[in-house]
Amino acid sequence: MSSGVREAPLTLDQPTPKVLSFWDQSAFWANLGVSLLAFSGAYTVLAPDTDGAPRISLAAGMLAMIVGTVMGGVMLGLAAVPGARTGRPAMVLLRGLFGAKLSYLPTVLNIAQLIGWGTFELIVIGGAARELFGGGPQWLYVVAAGLLTTALTIWPLGSVRLLRRFVTAGVVLALVWFYVQFFRAGLPDPTVNPGPSGSGPFGAEWNLFWVATDAALAVSISWVPAAADYTRHSRSERAAFGAASGAYALTQIVAYVLGLFALARATGAGTYGPFLTVTAGAVFFFVFVLREADQSFANVYSTALSIQNLLPRVDRRILTIGLGAVITVLALCLNMQNYFGFLGLIGSVFVPLLGVLVADFFLRPKTEWDTTENAPSRWGMVAAWLIGLVVYQLINPGDAGVWTRFWVRVQELLHFTKQAWMSASLLSFLAALAAAWVIGRATDLRHRT
């Protein structure tokens, strides 16, 4: 590898430069943790039910956010290490886990969820910009965000370093400013509904605590199948794990709590009204809106790398330009409905997948991680993944139409009743991890005899 290479390779057969320091990666993950979706998604954690009505108190919701985000941060850090060790993108790593051909299934699912997230981000940016500037055509803001997103993907490592040098400081200042303003206005009562329609006592419904935790964790988990796309450029495994787990979890918690404070001050004047009505709020909120483009950038860039697992010799620049156009068109046509169902479905797929990866990559004896185009199929690992998926769906079938109704029917056939202590994310992760470890050990013993 040439030491002069400073940008990401264009195809899979080119060398991967190890140029990102701990601080480069920390700035990248910290900025991803501060999302406009986290501000608006705070209500999703408080209303972990299909009808959207609030179900848990602000105190319970805040604790669920912290627990879910810390768990998600650790999972994100674990997903980051294989990329740093092998220098391979996330979906290419799955060739070593499932085999080259079988890795296409999670790859296609990842492409779908990343396009969905990229579309959501442009919708959020457009809506936030429209509130910030007091109106104007939504399509204009969406198109501008789509163009900025596409430009950032052309020079991905340069964009990461740009975040560290310029953007992160502005984000920190904006967070501090809004916290100060909300504290000065008075903290909300943690025992009541913080929404604009809530008024009376709002007891913590702890039987839904783990559902709320899964909702918070799902946002972190959405980055798990993309983490190695960036940490493959890390200078060390320790830097990759520390930056992904620590910086992301810290800033996401900060953003979620700030979103709750904003929700407590909401008066019905737009989703982001509480940010815009404080002193100099428009100035600092503009930082959030502009910075949100790094979310859509990361989604589009990782989608391109996922496609390269299927088409390894296609230039990523061509892919990202096409994807930028696709998500822009989708953002002009779709809305943010079914957001919680989308999150739950993502978590049910990728939480157990991570459990299988952790068991096979970290807990098995050190073996060569085969990421070639001829990597043999490993059906046992697919079975372990499906076991984790079933556990997740039995505990939390989510809100995804026909898919949810199917799993509710399975619950009835099995006479399964979810208990208050059950976390779909944690239990499915552990189930998939245990199954993958047992299957891996059995396979190793068979090969030795």
From TrEMBL:
<feature type="transmembrane region" description="Helical">
    <location>
        <begin position="58"/>
        <end position="81"/>
    </location>
</feature>
<dbReference type="GO" id="GO:0015209">
    <property type="term" value="F:cytosine transmembrane transporter activity"/>
</dbReference>
<feature type="transmembrane region" description="Helical">
    <location>
        <begin position="420"/>
        <end position="439"/>
    </location>
</feature>
<keyword id="KW-0472">Membrane</keyword>
<keyword id="KW-0812">Transmembrane</keyword>
<feature type="transmembrane region" description="Helical">
    <location>
        <begin position="269"/>
        <end position="290"/>
    </location>
</feature>
<feature type="transmembrane region" description="Helical">
    <location>
        <begin position="28"/>
        <end position="46"/>
    </location>
</feature>
<feature type="transmembrane region" description="Helical">
    <location>
        <begin position="207"/>
        <end position="228"/>
    </location>
</feature>
<feature type="transmembrane region" description="Helical">
    <location>
        <begin position="102"/>
        <end position="126"/>
    </location>
</feature>
<dbReference type="Pfam" id="PF02133">
    <property type="entry name" value="Transp_cyt_pur"/>
</dbReference>
<feature type="transmembrane region" description="Helical">
    <location>
        <begin position="375"/>
        <end position="395"/>
    </location>
</feature>
<comment type="similarity">
    <text>Belongs to the purine-cytosine permease (2.A.39) family.</text>
</comment>
<feature type="transmembrane region" description="Helical">
    <location>
        <begin position="240"/>
        <end position="263"/>
    </location>
</feature>
<dbReference type="InterPro" id="IPR030191">
    <property type="entry name" value="CodB"/>
</dbReference>
<feature type="transmembrane region" description="Helical">
    <location>
        <begin position="318"/>
        <end position="337"/>
    </location>
</feature>
<feature type="transmembrane region" description="Helical">
    <location>
        <begin position="138"/>
        <end position="157"/>
    </location>
</feature>
<dbReference type="InterPro" id="IPR001248">
    <property type="entry name" value="Pur-cyt_permease"/>
</dbReference>
<keyword id="KW-1133">Transmembrane helix</keyword>
<protein>
    <submittedName>
        <fullName>Allantoin permease</fullName>
    </submittedName>
</protein>
<feature type="transmembrane region" description="Helical">
    <location>
        <begin position="343"/>
        <end position="363"/>
    </location>
</feature>
<dbReference type="GO" id="GO:0005886">
    <property type="term" value="C:plasma membrane"/>
</dbReference>
<feature type="transmembrane region" description="Helical">
    <location>
        <begin position="166"/>
        <end position="187"/>
    </location>
</feature>
